[in-house]
Amino acid sequence: MSKIVTLSEASAIALHGMILVAQSDGLINVIQIAEKTESSKHHVAKVFQRLVKEGLIISQRGPKGGFKLTKKPEEITFLTVYEAIEGSISVVECPIEKPNCPFKKCILNGVTQRMTKEFKKYLSEQTLDMYLKH
């Protein structure tokens, strides 16, 4: 079955994992995140290395180690997390980005551009604190 809109496994791990870090009273480690997201601990480790490199979290090594946020949860948007993993979202006119189109009017009528703008807007409006247990 085809999916028009989907997240990569890495960005899904990043978004869910960052909320888990924000929810945690102390440090939370790779194994705990992998269990809660039902993901491979190796994939979680790789994703979280990227988030550390991007400065969204810090990691402490050792048996009692784990991750914690570098900012308050309300200061971290989903867009920041998403782009740390996937790169900057660019809004383009043509989804196939061909220099020459054989048609005078886009056959997709700008739907992909509108979807991308809406997705980016949604991600920019969501912050980690909005998903914390109260």
Strand content: 5-15%
What general form does the structure show?
elongated
The level-1 CATH class: Mainly Alpha
Strand ordering within the main sheet: 1-2
Order of helices and strands: HHHEEHH
Can you give the mean pLDDT?
93
Counted beta strands = 2
**What kind of sheet is the major sheet?**
2 strands, antiparallel
CATH superfamily: Winged helix-like DNA-binding domain superfamily/Winged helix DNA-binding domain
CATH architecture grouping:
Orthogonal Bundle
* Count of DSSP H/I helices: 5
Q: How would you classify the helix and strand content by structural class?
A: mainly alpha
Oligomer: single chain
State the low-pLDDT regions, or none.
none
How much helix, percentage-wise, in residues?
A: 40-55%
Describe the structure.
There is one protein chain. The protein is mostly helical and 134 residues long. The protein has a single domain (9-131), classed as Orthogonal Bundle (Arc Repressor Mutant, subunit A), CATH 1.10.10. It has five helices and two strands; from the N terminus they run αααββαα. A two-stranded antiparallel sheet has the order 1-2. A hairpin with a 5-residue loop joins strand 1 and strand 2 (66-69). The protein starts with 8 loop residues before the first helix and ends in a 9-residue tail after the last helix. The relative contact order is 0.17.
Summarize this, please?
This protein is mainly alpha-helical and 134 residues long. It is 45% helix and 6% strand.
List keywords for this structure.
single chain; 134 residues; mainly alpha; Arc Repressor Mutant, subunit A; two-stranded antiparallel sheet; 2 strands
